[in-house]
Design a protein that fits this description.
Structural class: alpha/beta
Distance between the termini: 33 Å
Low-confidence stretches: 1-6
Bound molecules: 5,6-dihydroxy-NADP, zinc ion
Strand content: 5-15%
Length: about 400
Protein backbone atom coordinates (compact mmCIF):
# COMPACT_ATOMS: atom_id res chain seq x y z
CA UNK A 1 0.00 0.00 0.00
CA UNK A 2 1.36 3.44 -0.92
CA UNK A 3 1.12 6.09 1.78
CA UNK A 4 2.08 8.94 -0.48
CA UNK A 5 0.77 9.54 -3.98
CA UNK A 6 0.38 12.46 -6.32
CA UNK A 7 -3.00 14.14 -6.66
CA UNK A 8 -3.14 12.80 -10.24
CA UNK A 9 -3.18 9.31 -8.87
CA UNK A 10 -6.48 9.47 -7.06
CA UNK A 11 -9.81 8.34 -8.51
CA UNK A 12 -10.49 10.29 -11.72
CA UNK A 13 -13.76 11.88 -12.80
CA UNK A 14 -15.41 9.65 -15.35
CA UNK A 15 -18.33 9.23 -17.74
CA UNK A 16 -19.68 5.71 -18.03
CA UNK A 17 -21.78 5.33 -21.19
CA UNK A 18 -23.15 1.87 -21.92
CA UNK A 19 -26.44 2.42 -23.73
CA UNK A 20 -26.70 -0.96 -25.52
CA UNK A 21 -29.93 -2.84 -24.90
CA UNK A 22 -28.85 -6.35 -23.88
CA UNK A 23 -31.46 -9.03 -24.49
CA UNK A 24 -30.18 -12.11 -22.72
CA UNK A 25 -31.34 -15.71 -22.46
CA UNK A 26 -32.80 -18.71 -24.25
CA UNK A 27 -34.49 -18.20 -27.64
CA UNK A 28 -33.83 -14.45 -27.60
CA UNK A 29 -32.67 -14.53 -31.24
CA UNK A 30 -36.34 -14.84 -32.18
CA UNK A 31 -36.70 -11.18 -31.11
CA UNK A 32 -34.07 -9.92 -33.55
CA UNK A 33 -36.51 -8.65 -36.18
CA UNK A 34 -38.58 -6.64 -33.71
CA UNK A 35 -35.40 -5.20 -32.17
CA UNK A 36 -34.13 -4.02 -35.58
CA UNK A 37 -37.51 -2.37 -36.10
CA UNK A 38 -37.47 -0.83 -32.63
CA UNK A 39 -34.22 0.91 -33.52
CA UNK A 40 -35.51 2.24 -36.82
CA UNK A 41 -34.27 -0.42 -39.27
CA UNK A 42 -36.34 -1.22 -42.35
CA UNK A 43 -33.69 -3.04 -44.38
CA UNK A 44 -30.79 -4.81 -42.67
CA UNK A 45 -27.43 -6.04 -43.90
CA UNK A 46 -26.81 -9.35 -42.10
CA UNK A 47 -23.05 -9.70 -41.60
CA UNK A 48 -21.79 -13.16 -40.64
CA UNK A 49 -18.65 -15.32 -40.56
CA UNK A 50 -17.29 -18.47 -42.12
CA UNK A 51 -20.30 -20.70 -41.70
CA UNK A 52 -20.88 -21.65 -38.05
CA UNK A 53 -24.19 -19.73 -38.06
CA UNK A 54 -25.29 -21.53 -41.23
CA UNK A 55 -24.47 -24.93 -39.75
CA UNK A 56 -26.18 -24.24 -36.44
CA UNK A 57 -29.35 -22.97 -38.12
CA UNK A 58 -29.04 -19.58 -36.41
CA UNK A 59 -28.88 -17.65 -39.68
CA UNK A 60 -32.18 -19.17 -40.79
CA UNK A 61 -33.81 -18.27 -37.48
CA UNK A 62 -32.56 -14.68 -37.76
CA UNK A 63 -33.84 -14.39 -41.37
CA UNK A 64 -37.22 -15.73 -40.23
CA UNK A 65 -37.38 -13.24 -37.38
CA UNK A 66 -36.62 -10.36 -39.77
CA UNK A 67 -39.26 -11.61 -42.21
CA UNK A 68 -41.84 -11.83 -39.45
CA UNK A 69 -41.10 -8.27 -38.40
CA UNK A 70 -41.36 -7.05 -42.00
CA UNK A 71 -37.70 -6.07 -42.15
CA UNK A 72 -36.02 -6.61 -45.52
CA UNK A 73 -32.47 -7.95 -45.59
CA UNK A 74 -29.33 -8.55 -47.65
CA UNK A 75 -26.27 -10.55 -46.61
CA UNK A 76 -22.51 -10.23 -46.38
CA UNK A 77 -21.04 -13.57 -45.28
CA UNK A 78 -17.62 -15.18 -45.01
CA UNK A 79 -16.01 -12.68 -42.63
CA UNK A 80 -12.82 -14.30 -41.37
CA UNK A 81 -11.21 -14.09 -37.91
CA UNK A 82 -8.88 -11.06 -37.62
CA UNK A 83 -11.15 -9.35 -40.19
CA UNK A 84 -9.69 -7.37 -43.05
CA UNK A 85 -10.37 -4.02 -44.68
CA UNK A 86 -11.42 -5.46 -48.08
CA UNK A 87 -14.66 -6.83 -46.60
CA UNK A 88 -15.40 -3.45 -45.02
CA UNK A 89 -15.03 -1.73 -48.41
CA UNK A 90 -17.28 -4.40 -49.94
CA UNK A 91 -19.91 -3.80 -47.24
CA UNK A 92 -19.77 -0.03 -47.70
CA UNK A 93 -20.41 -0.49 -51.44
CA UNK A 94 -23.34 -2.84 -50.77
CA UNK A 95 -25.01 -0.52 -48.26
CA UNK A 96 -24.65 2.53 -50.51
CA UNK A 97 -26.29 0.79 -53.43
CA UNK A 98 -29.20 -1.01 -51.82
CA UNK A 99 -30.95 1.30 -49.36
CA UNK A 100 -29.82 -0.63 -46.30
CA UNK A 101 -30.36 1.36 -43.10
CA UNK A 102 -29.29 -1.11 -40.40
CA UNK A 103 -26.26 -3.38 -39.86
CA UNK A 104 -26.96 -6.68 -38.16
CA UNK A 105 -23.88 -8.62 -37.05
CA UNK A 106 -24.54 -12.32 -36.38
CA UNK A 107 -21.34 -13.77 -34.94
CA UNK A 108 -18.34 -12.80 -32.83
CA UNK A 109 -15.89 -9.94 -32.60
CA UNK A 110 -14.67 -10.27 -36.18
CA UNK A 111 -18.16 -10.02 -37.63
CA UNK A 112 -19.26 -7.24 -35.26
CA UNK A 113 -16.11 -5.21 -35.93
CA UNK A 114 -16.61 -5.51 -39.69
CA UNK A 115 -20.18 -4.26 -39.29
CA UNK A 116 -18.89 -1.35 -37.20
CA UNK A 117 -16.29 -0.51 -39.85
CA UNK A 118 -19.05 -0.39 -42.46
CA UNK A 119 -21.27 1.63 -40.10
CA UNK A 120 -18.81 4.48 -39.78
CA UNK A 121 -17.33 4.21 -43.29
CA UNK A 122 -20.61 4.46 -45.12
CA UNK A 123 -21.41 7.94 -43.78
CA UNK A 124 -17.95 9.29 -44.57
CA UNK A 125 -16.77 10.61 -47.93
CA UNK A 126 -13.13 9.61 -47.41
CA UNK A 127 -11.44 6.26 -46.70
CA UNK A 128 -12.90 4.48 -43.63
CA UNK A 129 -9.32 3.55 -42.65
CA UNK A 130 -8.78 7.22 -41.68
CA UNK A 131 -10.74 6.44 -38.48
CA UNK A 132 -8.56 3.44 -37.59
CA UNK A 133 -5.23 5.15 -38.16
CA UNK A 134 -6.30 8.17 -36.13
CA UNK A 135 -6.60 10.71 -38.96
CA UNK A 136 -10.30 11.29 -38.32
CA UNK A 137 -12.69 10.99 -35.39
CA UNK A 138 -15.98 9.12 -35.88
CA UNK A 139 -18.83 11.56 -35.43
CA UNK A 140 -21.69 9.54 -36.83
CA UNK A 141 -22.37 5.95 -37.77
CA UNK A 142 -25.22 3.79 -38.98
CA UNK A 143 -26.99 1.74 -36.29
CA UNK A 144 -25.49 -1.68 -35.51
CA UNK A 145 -27.28 -4.58 -33.81
CA UNK A 146 -25.71 -7.86 -32.70
CA UNK A 147 -26.66 -11.50 -32.29
CA UNK A 148 -23.65 -12.79 -30.37
CA UNK A 149 -22.29 -16.31 -30.88
CA UNK A 150 -18.98 -16.22 -28.98
CA UNK A 151 -18.19 -14.47 -25.70
CA UNK A 152 -14.71 -13.04 -26.15
CA UNK A 153 -14.01 -9.66 -27.75
CA UNK A 154 -16.73 -7.80 -25.87
CA UNK A 155 -17.56 -5.89 -29.05
CA UNK A 156 -21.27 -6.50 -28.33
CA UNK A 157 -21.04 -3.84 -25.63
CA UNK A 158 -18.00 -1.79 -26.62
CA UNK A 159 -17.65 1.26 -28.84
CA UNK A 160 -14.55 -0.28 -30.41
CA UNK A 161 -13.66 -2.07 -33.62
CA UNK A 162 -10.44 -3.77 -34.72
CA UNK A 163 -9.62 -4.22 -38.43
CA UNK A 164 -6.51 -5.43 -40.26
CA UNK A 165 -5.33 -3.60 -43.38
CA UNK A 166 -4.29 -6.39 -45.74
CA UNK A 167 -1.69 -4.23 -47.41
CA UNK A 168 1.14 -4.15 -44.86
CA UNK A 169 -0.68 -6.34 -42.31
CA UNK A 170 -1.57 -3.44 -40.05
CA UNK A 171 -4.07 -4.33 -37.31
CA UNK A 172 -5.48 -1.23 -35.64
CA UNK A 173 -8.18 -0.61 -33.08
CA UNK A 174 -10.67 2.22 -33.24
CA UNK A 175 -12.16 3.41 -29.97
CA UNK A 176 -15.33 5.54 -29.80
CA UNK A 177 -17.22 6.58 -26.69
CA UNK A 178 -20.68 6.08 -28.13
CA UNK A 179 -20.90 6.17 -31.95
CA UNK A 180 -20.10 2.48 -32.46
CA UNK A 181 -21.81 0.97 -29.43
CA UNK A 182 -24.40 -1.52 -30.68
CA UNK A 183 -28.02 -0.41 -30.29
CA UNK A 184 -28.87 -3.90 -29.05
CA UNK A 185 -27.13 -7.19 -28.44
CA UNK A 186 -29.01 -10.46 -28.37
CA UNK A 187 -27.18 -12.92 -26.14
CA UNK A 188 -28.41 -16.51 -25.97
CA UNK A 189 -25.87 -18.68 -24.08
CA UNK A 190 -27.18 -21.78 -25.88
CA UNK A 191 -25.70 -20.40 -29.10
CA UNK A 192 -22.25 -20.94 -27.57
CA UNK A 193 -22.74 -24.70 -26.97
CA UNK A 194 -21.25 -25.37 -30.43
CA UNK A 195 -18.00 -23.50 -29.77
CA UNK A 196 -14.90 -25.67 -30.15
CA UNK A 197 -12.92 -25.85 -26.86
CA UNK A 198 -10.08 -23.81 -28.40
CA UNK A 199 -12.42 -20.90 -29.25
CA UNK A 200 -14.05 -21.10 -25.83
CA UNK A 201 -10.61 -20.84 -24.23
CA UNK A 202 -9.51 -17.98 -26.51
CA UNK A 203 -12.61 -16.09 -25.47
CA UNK A 204 -11.97 -16.66 -21.78
CA UNK A 205 -8.39 -15.37 -22.08
CA UNK A 206 -9.54 -12.32 -24.04
CA UNK A 207 -12.22 -11.28 -21.55
CA UNK A 208 -9.74 -11.70 -18.69
CA UNK A 209 -7.26 -9.56 -20.63
CA UNK A 210 -9.85 -6.80 -21.02
CA UNK A 211 -10.13 -6.70 -17.25
CA UNK A 212 -6.32 -6.77 -16.79
CA UNK A 213 -5.87 -3.76 -19.09
CA UNK A 214 -8.06 -1.74 -16.72
CA UNK A 215 -7.15 -3.35 -13.41
CA UNK A 216 -3.38 -2.84 -13.70
CA UNK A 217 -3.41 0.86 -13.01
CA UNK A 218 -1.57 3.20 -10.68
CA UNK A 219 -4.71 5.21 -9.95
CA UNK A 220 -5.46 4.83 -6.25
CA UNK A 221 -8.80 4.79 -4.49
CA UNK A 222 -10.84 2.71 -6.96
CA UNK A 223 -11.78 -0.03 -4.51
CA UNK A 224 -15.24 -0.55 -6.02
CA UNK A 225 -13.86 -0.87 -9.54
CA UNK A 226 -11.10 -3.16 -8.26
CA UNK A 227 -13.55 -5.45 -6.51
CA UNK A 228 -15.82 -5.60 -9.58
CA UNK A 229 -12.80 -6.59 -11.67
CA UNK A 230 -11.58 -9.17 -9.15
CA UNK A 231 -15.09 -10.62 -8.82
CA UNK A 232 -15.41 -10.97 -12.58
CA UNK A 233 -11.98 -12.60 -12.91
CA UNK A 234 -12.82 -15.06 -10.15
CA UNK A 235 -16.21 -15.87 -11.68
CA UNK A 236 -14.73 -16.37 -15.15
CA UNK A 237 -12.10 -18.83 -13.90
CA UNK A 238 -14.60 -20.78 -11.77
CA UNK A 239 -17.17 -20.97 -14.56
CA UNK A 240 -14.48 -21.88 -17.11
CA UNK A 241 -13.82 -25.14 -15.28
CA UNK A 242 -17.54 -25.97 -15.43
CA UNK A 243 -17.77 -25.18 -19.14
CA UNK A 244 -14.85 -27.45 -19.96
CA UNK A 245 -16.35 -30.22 -17.81
CA UNK A 246 -19.70 -29.86 -19.62
CA UNK A 247 -19.86 -27.62 -22.73
CA UNK A 248 -23.67 -27.66 -22.54
CA UNK A 249 -23.83 -26.33 -18.97
CA UNK A 250 -26.26 -23.45 -19.54
CA UNK A 251 -25.54 -21.53 -16.32
CA UNK A 252 -21.77 -21.71 -16.79
CA UNK A 253 -22.05 -20.61 -20.45
CA UNK A 254 -24.41 -17.81 -19.38
CA UNK A 255 -22.04 -16.54 -16.70
CA UNK A 256 -19.11 -16.60 -19.11
CA UNK A 257 -21.16 -14.79 -21.74
CA UNK A 258 -22.28 -11.99 -19.43
CA UNK A 259 -18.74 -11.65 -18.03
CA UNK A 260 -17.36 -11.03 -21.52
CA UNK A 261 -19.64 -8.01 -21.87
CA UNK A 262 -18.97 -6.58 -18.41
CA UNK A 263 -15.24 -7.06 -18.93
CA UNK A 264 -15.22 -4.69 -21.89
CA UNK A 265 -18.11 -2.23 -21.69
CA UNK A 266 -15.99 0.21 -19.68
CA UNK A 267 -17.21 -0.72 -16.18
CA UNK A 268 -13.86 -2.13 -15.05
CA UNK A 269 -12.04 1.04 -16.07
CA UNK A 270 -14.24 3.54 -14.26
CA UNK A 271 -12.24 6.16 -12.38
CA UNK A 272 -8.77 5.21 -13.47
CA UNK A 273 -6.03 5.26 -16.05
CA UNK A 274 -5.97 2.15 -18.26
CA UNK A 275 -2.99 0.30 -19.76
CA UNK A 276 -3.60 -1.58 -23.08
CA UNK A 277 0.08 -2.33 -23.82
CA UNK A 278 -0.59 -6.09 -23.84
CA UNK A 279 -3.37 -5.72 -26.40
CA UNK A 280 -1.17 -3.59 -28.63
CA UNK A 281 1.63 -6.17 -28.38
CA UNK A 282 -0.81 -8.95 -29.23
CA UNK A 283 -2.32 -7.12 -32.18
CA UNK A 284 1.13 -7.15 -33.82
CA UNK A 285 1.32 -10.92 -33.28
CA UNK A 286 -2.10 -11.58 -34.82
CA UNK A 287 -1.46 -9.12 -37.68
CA UNK A 288 1.86 -10.67 -38.68
CA UNK A 289 1.39 -14.34 -37.71
CA UNK A 290 -2.41 -14.66 -38.01
CA UNK A 291 -2.86 -16.20 -34.55
CA UNK A 292 -6.18 -16.07 -32.67
CA UNK A 293 -6.32 -12.93 -30.53
CA UNK A 294 -7.10 -14.79 -27.27
CA UNK A 295 -4.33 -17.35 -27.77
CA UNK A 296 -1.88 -14.53 -28.44
CA UNK A 297 -2.94 -12.82 -25.23
CA UNK A 298 -2.34 -16.01 -23.21
CA UNK A 299 1.30 -15.65 -24.23
CA UNK A 300 1.55 -11.86 -23.85
CA UNK A 301 -0.24 -11.31 -20.53
CA UNK A 302 2.00 -13.38 -18.20
CA UNK A 303 5.18 -12.07 -19.88
CA UNK A 304 3.97 -8.47 -19.51
CA UNK A 305 2.99 -9.05 -15.85
CA UNK A 306 6.35 -10.56 -15.07
CA UNK A 307 8.24 -7.69 -16.69
CA UNK A 308 6.27 -4.87 -15.04
CA UNK A 309 6.54 -6.61 -11.67
CA UNK A 310 10.28 -5.95 -11.74
CA UNK A 311 9.64 -2.24 -11.19
CA UNK A 312 6.00 -2.02 -10.09
CA UNK A 313 4.84 -5.25 -8.42
CA UNK A 314 2.12 -3.84 -6.10
CA UNK A 315 -0.99 -4.37 -8.20
CA UNK A 316 0.20 -7.67 -9.64
CA UNK A 317 0.72 -8.86 -6.06
CA UNK A 318 -2.81 -7.70 -5.18
CA UNK A 319 -4.13 -9.71 -8.13
CA UNK A 320 -2.10 -12.72 -6.97
CA UNK A 321 -3.59 -12.59 -3.49
CA UNK A 322 -7.17 -11.55 -4.19
CA UNK A 323 -7.78 -13.49 -7.41
CA UNK A 324 -5.23 -16.29 -7.63
CA UNK A 325 -5.42 -17.18 -3.91
CA UNK A 326 -1.72 -16.69 -3.15
CA UNK A 327 -1.01 -16.46 0.59
CA UNK A 328 1.37 -13.49 1.10
CA UNK A 329 3.32 -14.88 4.11
CA UNK A 330 5.20 -11.55 4.55
CA UNK A 331 7.10 -12.15 1.31
CA UNK A 332 8.25 -9.31 -0.98
CA UNK A 333 5.53 -8.13 -3.39
CA UNK A 334 7.51 -9.28 -6.40
CA UNK A 335 7.68 -12.85 -5.12
CA UNK A 336 3.93 -12.85 -4.45
CA UNK A 337 3.33 -11.43 -7.91
CA UNK A 338 5.45 -14.15 -9.54
CA UNK A 339 3.51 -16.88 -7.77
CA UNK A 340 0.27 -15.35 -9.03
CA UNK A 341 1.63 -15.26 -12.59
CA UNK A 342 2.70 -18.90 -12.29
CA UNK A 343 -0.83 -19.85 -11.23
CA UNK A 344 -2.32 -17.83 -14.09
CA UNK A 345 -0.13 -19.71 -16.57
CA UNK A 346 -1.25 -23.00 -15.03
CA UNK A 347 -4.87 -21.92 -15.50
CA UNK A 348 -4.22 -21.03 -19.16
CA UNK A 349 -2.44 -24.35 -19.76
CA UNK A 350 -5.32 -26.16 -18.05
CA UNK A 351 -7.80 -24.77 -20.59
CA UNK A 352 -5.53 -25.66 -23.50
CA UNK A 353 -3.97 -22.27 -24.17
CA UNK A 354 -0.33 -21.67 -25.15
CA UNK A 355 1.90 -19.68 -22.80
CA UNK A 356 4.96 -19.31 -25.06
CA UNK A 357 5.42 -18.18 -28.67
CA UNK A 358 6.62 -21.65 -29.74
CA UNK A 359 3.41 -23.19 -28.37
CA UNK A 360 1.51 -20.60 -30.42
CA UNK A 361 3.25 -21.91 -33.54
CA UNK A 362 5.66 -18.97 -33.84
CA UNK A 363 9.02 -20.73 -33.73
CA UNK A 364 11.30 -17.91 -34.89
CA UNK A 365 9.58 -14.61 -34.16
CA UNK A 366 10.98 -11.53 -35.82
CA UNK A 367 11.14 -9.52 -32.60
CA UNK A 368 12.81 -6.50 -34.20
CA UNK A 369 9.93 -6.23 -36.69
CA UNK A 370 7.29 -6.70 -33.98
CA UNK A 371 8.83 -3.93 -31.85
CA UNK A 372 9.28 -1.58 -34.78
CA UNK A 373 5.68 -2.01 -35.99
CA UNK A 374 4.28 -1.79 -32.47
CA UNK A 375 5.81 1.62 -31.74
CA UNK A 376 5.21 2.85 -35.27
CA UNK A 377 1.49 2.17 -34.75
CA UNK A 378 1.11 3.01 -31.09
CA UNK A 379 3.86 5.53 -30.27
CA UNK A 380 6.57 5.58 -27.66
CA UNK A 381 6.18 4.91 -24.81
CA UNK A 382 3.09 2.67 -24.62
CA UNK A 383 1.08 1.55 -21.58
CA UNK A 384 0.04 3.17 -18.32
CA UNK A 385 0.94 0.91 -15.40
CA UNK A 386 4.57 0.95 -16.53
CA UNK A 387 5.52 3.12 -19.50
CA UNK A 388 7.23 0.88 -22.05
CA UNK A 389 9.87 1.98 -24.56
CA UNK A 390 11.06 -0.18 -27.47
CA UNK A 391 13.81 -1.56 -25.20
CA UNK A 392 11.14 -2.72 -22.74
CA UNK A 393 8.80 -4.24 -25.30
CA UNK A 394 11.72 -6.09 -26.87
CA UNK A 395 12.42 -7.63 -23.45
CA UNK A 396 8.77 -8.59 -23.03
CA UNK A 397 8.66 -10.30 -26.45
CA UNK A 398 11.84 -12.17 -25.44
CA UNK A 399 10.15 -13.32 -22.22
CA UNK A 400 7.54 -15.00 -24.43
CA UNK A 401 10.11 -17.30 -26.07
O1 LIG B 1 -16.55 -17.67 -38.79
P1 LIG B 1 -17.38 -18.70 -38.12
O2 LIG B 1 -17.66 -19.89 -38.96
O3 LIG B 1 -18.63 -18.12 -37.52
O4 LIG B 1 -16.47 -19.30 -36.91
C1 LIG B 1 -16.00 -18.50 -35.86
C2 LIG B 1 -14.51 -18.19 -35.97
O5 LIG B 1 -13.83 -19.17 -36.67
C3 LIG B 1 -16.06 -19.31 -34.60
N1 LIG B 1 -17.36 -19.24 -33.92
C4 LIG B 1 -17.97 -18.13 -33.47
N2 LIG B 1 -19.11 -18.46 -32.85
C5 LIG B 1 -19.23 -19.82 -32.94
C6 LIG B 1 -18.11 -20.30 -33.63
N3 LIG B 1 -17.94 -21.63 -33.87
C7 LIG B 1 -18.88 -22.48 -33.42
N4 LIG B 1 -19.96 -22.07 -32.72
C8 LIG B 1 -20.17 -20.76 -32.45
N5 LIG B 1 -21.22 -20.37 -31.72
O6 LIG B 1 -15.08 -18.75 -33.75
C9 LIG B 1 -14.02 -18.24 -34.54
C10 LIG B 1 -13.57 -16.91 -33.99
O7 LIG B 1 -14.53 -15.92 -34.21
P2 LIG B 1 -14.15 -14.38 -34.01
O8 LIG B 1 -15.33 -13.55 -34.29
O9 LIG B 1 -12.89 -14.08 -34.73
O10 LIG B 1 -13.81 -14.36 -32.44
P3 LIG B 1 -13.71 -13.20 -31.39
O11 LIG B 1 -15.07 -12.84 -30.89
O12 LIG B 1 -12.70 -13.62 -30.44
O13 LIG B 1 -13.19 -11.91 -32.21
C11 LIG B 1 -11.83 -11.71 -32.41
C12 LIG B 1 -11.59 -10.38 -33.08
O14 LIG B 1 -12.05 -9.30 -32.24
C13 LIG B 1 -10.97 -8.37 -32.04
C14 LIG B 1 -9.76 -9.26 -32.12
O15 LIG B 1 -8.57 -8.55 -32.29
C15 LIG B 1 -10.11 -10.14 -33.30
O16 LIG B 1 -9.88 -9.45 -34.51
N6 LIG B 1 -11.20 -7.62 -30.82
C16 LIG B 1 -12.20 -6.70 -30.83
C17 LIG B 1 -12.47 -5.90 -29.74
C18 LIG B 1 -13.56 -4.89 -29.76
N7 LIG B 1 -14.17 -4.65 -30.90
O17 LIG B 1 -13.89 -4.26 -28.74
C19 LIG B 1 -11.66 -5.96 -28.52
C20 LIG B 1 -10.78 -7.15 -28.44
O18 LIG B 1 -9.70 -6.85 -27.61
C21 LIG B 1 -10.27 -7.70 -29.73
O19 LIG B 1 -9.06 -7.05 -30.13
ZN1 LIG C 1 -9.04 -8.38 -26.59
Amino acid sequence: MHLYFSIDNIMNNFTFWSPTKFVFGRDTESRTGSLVKEFGGTKALIVYGGGSVVKSGLLDRVRKSLDEAGVEWEELGGICPNPTDDRVYEGIGLVRNTGIDFLLAVGGGSVIDTAKGIACGVLYDGDFWDFYCGKKVVEKAMPVGVVLTIPAAGSEGSGNSVITKKDGLIKLSLRTESALRPRFSVMNPELTFTLPPYQTACGIVDMMAHIFERYFSNTEGCETTDRVAEGLLTAIMNEAHKVFADPRDYEARANIMWSSTLAHNGLCGTGREEDWASHFMEHELSAIYGVAHGAGLAVVNPAWMSYVSRTNPAKVAQFAVRVMGVIPEYRPEREIAEEGIKRLKEFYRGIGMPVALGELGIENPDIARLVEKLHEHKGNPIGGYVKLTPADTEEIYKLML
